[in-house]
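Ops channel
N.P.: pipeline sanity check, posting one input/output pair.
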């Protein structure tokens, strides 16, 4: 049974619920990241294994409008993010930090507060376990950067990753790590 999270259309996502919605989540993932002005190429065959790995390491939530899946957010311990520059940021307690690994909203539903609802729910559910939250976003993704700043995240680091524009056409993507304190450690 899918556990509703109180907010209309918002449901828990974990390794037990995931198989039932896997196809829809993969479709949303591919749509969210491979279309529009900020599109990159993601091999559809790899998308499933990427999401399978993320859900094994963490949990998340899904937002439906009617029967349509329009948003998904996934999170895990920051210990699971091998790219986080922990040595450069000793003030960030990696073992007590939530890593929001994916926020996906269907293009037809962007600008309606869905990303805000997804992220705020993750933060609320993580507050008993984690003291901070970290999210990583492409520096060119202004809508996402604006959202995360409005939610109280601030930049703390930048990394570079090689992604694909099309098969065989790599490009360098600068990703910004943003941090938010979600509860006092005292």
């Amino acid at each position: 049974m899918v556990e509703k999270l109180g907010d209309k259309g918002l449901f828990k996502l974990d390794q037990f619920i995931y198989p039932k919605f896997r196809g829809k989540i993969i479709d949303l993932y591919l749509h969210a990241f491979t279309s529009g002005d900020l599109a990159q190429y993601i091999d559809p065959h790899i998308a499933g294994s990427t999401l399978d790995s993320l859900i094994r390491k963490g949990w998340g939530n899904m937002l439906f409008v009617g029967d349509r899946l329009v948003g998904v957010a996934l999170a895990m311990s920051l210990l699971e993010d091998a790219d986080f520059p922990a040595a450069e940021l000793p003030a960030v307690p990696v073992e007590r930090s939530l890593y929001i690994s994916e926020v996906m909203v269907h293009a037809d539903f962007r600008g309606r507060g869905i990303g805000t609802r997804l992220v705020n729910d993750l933060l609320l559910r993580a507050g008993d376990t984690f003291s901070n939250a970290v999210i990583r976003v492409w520096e060119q993704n202004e809508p996402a950067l604006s959202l995360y700043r409005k939610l109280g995240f601030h930049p703390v680091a930048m990394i570079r990753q090689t992604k694909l524009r099309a098969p065989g056409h790599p490009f360098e993507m600068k990703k910004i790590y943003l941090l938010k304190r979600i509860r006092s450690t005292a």
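N.P.: looks fine end to end. The longest helix spans residues 18-34.
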